[in-house]
Amino acid sequence: MNDEPSTLPRDVEVPVGGAAWRRLRGGPVWAFGLVLVTVIALVVVGGGAVYFARLASTGDAPEGGAWQVLGTAAWWLTIVGLLVGAAALWIGDIDRRGSMARSGEPRGRVLPSATNVSQVVPIGYGWHVGWLALEAVLAVGMLAVSSWAVGAVDSDDLQGYPTAWAFWGLGAAALFGATAGSLVKKVAFRRWAAAHAASMRGGAPTGRVSPFWRWVTFRFRLDLWVCAAGALLLAAAAVVGSLLESLGDDFGSADDVAEATGAVQALGVVGALLLVVGLAAATQYRRAGKPLGAAESLA
Prior knowledge:
Helix content: 55-70%
Structural class: mainly alpha
Shape: globular
Number of domains: 2
Number of helices: 8
């Protein structure tokens, strides 16, 4: 695998807009995704920062048509724009840093095997840690601010930036879990490969492939999904616990508070268990028999 960009091969099946993707190639698609995600960040993060700064200084939520439009835009950009931008970045990045081709493996009976496979050059450890740091800052900062805003604004004002930032904060926490699992997967795989160099060929282990671990760690990336779910539940437990503490007697009776606190603690325990299980599963990627940076379509 080299670092040279490549075009989508002609035999790759692209269900929607295949000809357009091939004409645009990776660079323009990636640039479009980058611009869209940047605009979203400016509206959601930048606009939200101004919104909460004014809220903190005046004690009242900013009002007016412009803020209503921005609050609505923050939600729609989060729901639709972020999905489109992330898809463009993902497809463009495959074409920039790797290649895609039709799968040569036979079709399965229970579930069809992949139609297409891809291979990219994994990012370096520095970039990996940098993404972890950014996701941690976004998760902690946005969840802390949105939790504070719950007690600072009227319920009608929660539908704009406060809830958008809570959504983004939880999403950043989930991404942190998935990125942490990806880093653990990469470190564990490379350490095993270095200790078993004779068993490696083309960047992949040559021993017996476990169908179970191939499904879990390669095809469906369930290890990373479990890591993301665990981090998400931990973040949600922390936020709800903080809200319970700040509300105090306003939440309800002592029994209500005790019951809610128990539920939050259980949520945190489940999240921690999921994160541990996901990280442990990520260390078994070598059993999938695939190199780092490889992926395949689900159908």
